[in-house]
């Protein structure tokens, strides 16, 4: 609570009450202040730290004006002071702030410790607060009259005063005294600067003058009652018109500088009556007053067509309701026990009689007075009546419930309202909460929590509380699940989309959707059978390579991920070499040696000659021109990439004369026929276009273009495989042979095709056999390796 208007003049004498073990002091002990201002009282105290062998502590602090020192009536429970007090206690000091000061009284402070016998002490004599008003006293003189601004308090400091002539401020008149001409026809008033609302009533210096004096500066009335606001007025001329007005409603008129008669204000229609008997007094009667009627009211009149204006305050009306105030409450398992007081914000002029009602039935007569102790169960209520004006109902609250405006599915973007409902008609204080991680977020204090367009981030637990003077009740939590269509779809590859053959690879499709998405997988624009969130390869193979994407779907929509290409890499394998000419290589001729392999990424090649491991080329095809006999020998190539390597060997024989070539060729022909027959019987499953030595054949792999991810079109072509067999004879006798497959055609759906590679190689144990010695070719044997990929 904050009290803004404060004016305190202190003229004090300090009195200390001492004893052997304790003492206390209030400063100041005397305060004189204007009516309606704010004052602050201060008391400090001390007490023995131990008494009779036990440690001492303060348990209760009380300010009071009524009751005996040992039986004080707590000022905080006095209805006359409701809303006007603020007590602030820290340690051994207690302050009391009183706003809107209305009456003189002696305020005392008492504290109680935990000692059962010697634990209560009252600080005496307390603080004597005198409430005063101002008046102008006129002193007669020879040619002038002197005036003085007086009150029951001593004078305020110089230049603290304001003087008014006919209701208008006199400039530079700041002292407590002011002089005027003897025959002045004007009225005069004074005030203390900063507290103009407490100005004195105007007085006439000589005979009659222009003045308005209000009978009461403050009037308190109960809602629904009637109130009279009366003033006395006089003038030095003929009054042509007069009326009442409200300064705070001047902005509503066409000309704000000219107040308007309340009779023309629709707020008061049918509720005003004017009484003007006897002459010189005028009464404004307001019937069935409302809280909105609380305001300052002033009286105006015009003389000879000229309006007499005054800025002096009029009568201040406060319209109050009868209320039930809870002084103490004890919560039991099934009900509450409350100590109640029937009160108003201000005390009406006429004495009040009280009645108490419980659940609509009169339970307590007027003799019960304004205080009551009662037990109330959830849903029950109590009211009080003062001068037949009923207070609002005070309910013992039941546990509230939360209701949703839409009990069906809650879709993002739609409106939603949560209602906190109780079983009482009087509206308590509401508060909404949202569970956010470990904290509870307060959302509002209205009975309804409205989402004009609910978002997915609003998904959470919600609950509400209702609270009044008898306690607080909390509802059960309600979970709001905001649903929405997939708005993202992401494809993740673990460990990477570039992987090595044989690794475990997992594809995961992640989406933001509620309810959770189901998933459809695509490879090279063909729907796969897998429907789970993850798609795994236990040991990935080259045929598994391709372009993948996933689609997230729930009942509100769908969303496709971006495409990811899975590249399955492996070391070179099936290294093969071939001689690009006829079997006879004569001196001076040219010959191409070709090295090939199956690899991803594409292999790099290097050629070596066995004698000395001399590097002779870095290309897959090594071209030899104008060969000489010295070029004869064993050549081998190495195919390598980042995943590994493989190698293959070939023997090149350069003949010095045609006869030697012919002899060598005849011997070789027999071996060729035997091995070709064996290879044709055991190996070749596809038709070969040629069986000539060193004749190469090529096939070009073709594939269809890939449509966008999500389509299911594909085209297959016939798979043709060609093979090539070549043989050479070294001078020492070893025979080298190899079968060279042409590049096979890779189709889009590699997992449905099977490619066979065949290699025919002579056995090592015949390496010393020489054909010219008539060796039996049947002793040769070949091994056939069949590779499936």
Explain this structure:
It is a single chain. The chain starts with 8 loop residues before the first strand and ends with a strand. With 789 residues, it is mostly beta strands. The chain contains 1 helix and 69 strands. Strands 50, 52, 53, 55, 56, 57, 59 and 62 form an 8-stranded mixed β-sheet that branches. The protein has a 5-stranded mixed β-sheet with strand order 1-4-14-13-8, with no helix packed on it. The chain has 7 domains: 9-132, Immunoglobulin-like (Sandwich); 135-204, Immunoglobulin-like (Sandwich); 211-319, Immunoglobulins (Immunoglobulin-like), CATH 2.60.40; 321-395, Sandwich (Immunoglobulin-like); 401-483, Immunoglobulins (Immunoglobulin-like, Sandwich), CATH 2.60.40.10; 489-562, Immunoglobulin-like, CATH 2.60.40.10; 569-703 and 720-788, Immunoglobulins (Immunoglobulin-like, Sandwich), CATH 2.60.40.10. Mean pLDDT is 76; it is low at 1-21, 659-708 and 710-789. The radius of gyration is 56 Å and the shape is elongated.
């Amino acid at each position: 609570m904050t009290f803004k208007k404060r004016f305190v003049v202190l003229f004090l004498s300090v009195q200390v009450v001492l004893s052997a073990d304790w003492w206390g002091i209030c400063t100041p002990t005397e305060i004189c202040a204007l009516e309606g201002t704010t004052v602050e009282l201060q008391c400090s105290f001390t007490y023995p730290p131990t008494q009779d062998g036990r440690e001492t502590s303060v348990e209760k602090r009380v300010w009071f004006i009524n009751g005996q020192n040992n039986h004080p009536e707590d000022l905080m429970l006095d209805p006359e002071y409701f809303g006007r007090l603020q007590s602030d206690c820290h340690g051994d000091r207690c302050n009391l702030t009183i706003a809107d000061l209305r009456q003189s009284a002696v305020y005392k402070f008492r504290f109680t410790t935990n000692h059962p016998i010697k634990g209560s002490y009252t600080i005496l004599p307390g603080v004597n607060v005198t409430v005063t008003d101002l008046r102008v006293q006129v002193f007669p003189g020879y040619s002038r009259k002197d005036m003085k601004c007086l009150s029951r308090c001593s004078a305020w400091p110089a230049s603290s005063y304001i003087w008014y002539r006919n209701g208008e401020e006199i400039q530079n008149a700041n002292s407590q005294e002011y002089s005027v001409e003897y025959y002045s026809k004007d009225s005069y008033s004074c005030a203390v600067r900063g507290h103009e609302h407490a100005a004195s009533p105007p007085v006439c210096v000589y005979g009659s003058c222009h003045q308005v004096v209000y009978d009461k500066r403050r009037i308190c009335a109960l809602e629904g009652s009637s109130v009279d606001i009366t003033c006395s007025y006089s003038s030095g001329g003929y009054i042509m018109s007069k009326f009442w007005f409200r300064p705070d409603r001047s902005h509503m008129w066409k000309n704000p500088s000219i107040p308007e008669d309340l009779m023309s204000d629709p707020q008061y229609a049918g509720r005003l009556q004017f009484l003007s008997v006897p002459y010189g007094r005028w009464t404004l009667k307001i019937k069935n007053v409302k809280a909105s009627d609380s305001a300052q009211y002033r009286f105006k009149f015009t003389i000879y067509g000229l309006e007499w204006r005054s800025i002096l305050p009029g009568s201040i009306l406060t319209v109050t309701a009868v209320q039930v105030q809870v002084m103490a409450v004890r919560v039991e398992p099934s009900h509450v026990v409350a100590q109640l007081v029937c009160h108003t914000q201000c005390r009406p002029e006429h004495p009040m009689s009280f009645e108490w009602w419980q659940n609509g039935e009169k339970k307590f007569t007027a003799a019960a007075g304004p205080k009551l102790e009662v037990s109330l169960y959830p849903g029950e209520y109590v009211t009080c009546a003062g001068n037949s004006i009923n207070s609002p109902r005070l309910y013992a609250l039941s546990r509230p419930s939360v209701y949703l405006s839409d009990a069906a599915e809650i879709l993002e973007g739609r409106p939603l309202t949560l209602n906190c409902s109780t079983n009482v008609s009087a509206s308590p204080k509401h508060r909404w909460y949202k569970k956010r991680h470990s904290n509870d977020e307060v959302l509002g204090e209205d009975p309804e929590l409205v989402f004009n367009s609910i978002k997915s981030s609003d998904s959470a637990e919600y609950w509400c509380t209702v609270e009044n003077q008898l306690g607080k009740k909390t509802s059960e939590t309600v979970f709001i699940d905001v649903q929405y269509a997939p708005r993202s779809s992401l494809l993740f590859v673990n460990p990477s989309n570039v992987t090595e053959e044989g690794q475990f690879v997992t594809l995961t499709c992640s989406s933001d959707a509620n309810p959770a998405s189901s998933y459809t997988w695509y490879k090279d624009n063909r729907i796969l059978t897998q429907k789970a969130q993850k798609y795994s390869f236990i040991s990935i193979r080259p045929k598994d390579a391709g372009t993948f994407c996933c689609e997230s779907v729930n009942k509100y929509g769908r969303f496709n991920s971006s495409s990811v290409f899975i590249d399955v890499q492996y070391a070179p394998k099936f290294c093969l070499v071939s001689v690009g000419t006829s079997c006879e290589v004569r001196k001076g001729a040219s010959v191409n040696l070709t090295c090939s392999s199956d690899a991803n990424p594409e292999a790099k090649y290097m050629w070596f000659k066995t004698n000395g491991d001399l590097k002779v080329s870095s290309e897959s095809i090594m071209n030899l021109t104008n060969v000489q006999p010295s070029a004869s020998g064993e050549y081998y190539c190495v195919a390598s990439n980042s995943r590994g390597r493989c190698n293959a060997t070939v023997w090149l024989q350069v003949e010095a004369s045609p006869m030697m070539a012919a002899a060598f060729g005849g011997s070789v022909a027999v071996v060729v026929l035997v091995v070709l027959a064996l290879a044709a019987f055991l190996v070749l499953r596809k038709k070969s276009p040629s069986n000539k030595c060193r004749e190469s054949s090529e096939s070009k792999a073709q594939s269809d273009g890939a449509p966008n991810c999500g389509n299911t079109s594909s085209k297959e072509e016939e798979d043709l495989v060609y093979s090539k067999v070549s043989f050479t004879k070294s001078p020492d006798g070893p025979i080298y042979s190899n079968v060279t497959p042409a590049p096979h055609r890779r189709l889009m759906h590699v997992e449905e095709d099977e490619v066979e590679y065949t290699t025919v190689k002579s056995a090592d144990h015949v390496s010393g056999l020489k054909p010219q010695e008539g060796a039996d070719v049947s002793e040769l044997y070949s091994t056939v390796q069949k590779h499936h990929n």
